[in-house]
Amino acid sequence: MESGPIASDRLRLREFRDDDLDVLAAMVGDVEQMTFYPRPKTRDEAAEWIRLNTGLYATRGFGTWLIEALPGSRFAGYCGIRPLELDQVSEIEIGWHVHKRFWKQGIATEAAALVCDAAATRFGLARLVALVHPDHTASRRVAENVGMRRERMTVLEADYPAIVYAAELPRTQADAISTGR
Asked: CA end-to-end span of the chain, whole Å?
């Protein structure tokens, strides 16, 4: 990542490494954790997802990062950005997924706010979208809490319905100050 870690007083976001496979596979393989996803993921799918992100770090400078809860660097989930082709339009998607032991603690909102700030200030991105299952009230609240607005509905793979949330990001630090973000 450019310019040091993405962090707050209680969270640090860092690049995924191969040795994160066990904690990631356990989380995305858990039925309860994957309630709002089409299905739980296999260990091989989790490993492929880590490879995809390490490739994004190398080519784009960003990807989805592992969330560490501080102190102690405990695995708390993941949050980050990735290129996405959505309804024939190139977008950058922000996504978050917090481990259930950290639910209802504001971790997803805090991580997503850190990522939105990095997207604008470190990576010069002008727009982010989030794809949220209509029934996932907590995730919808995260999108709204970080300044995203509902744009439309779409249907993803496997007939998975999603609300498309979007945010226009300030381009410079001066823009961020003038808009209060």
From this structure: 21
Distance CA 45, CA 35 (A): 17
Give the single-character DSSP code of 19.
Answer: G
| Pick from 53, 90, 65, 50: nearest CA to 11 | 65
Per residue in 150-170, pLDDT (tens digit) is: 999 999 887 889 999 999 998
Is the separation of the CB atoms in 77 and 98 below 8 Å?
A: yes
For residue 1, the cross-strand partners are none
Q: What is the pTM of this model?
A: 0.89
Any idea which residue has 């260990």 for tokens?
Answer: 43
Q: Which of 50, 47, 53, 45 is nearest to 1 (CA)?
A: 53
- In the chain, where the domains are located: 6-179
Question: Looking at the domain that runs over 6-179, which CATH code has it been given?
Answer: 3.40.630.30
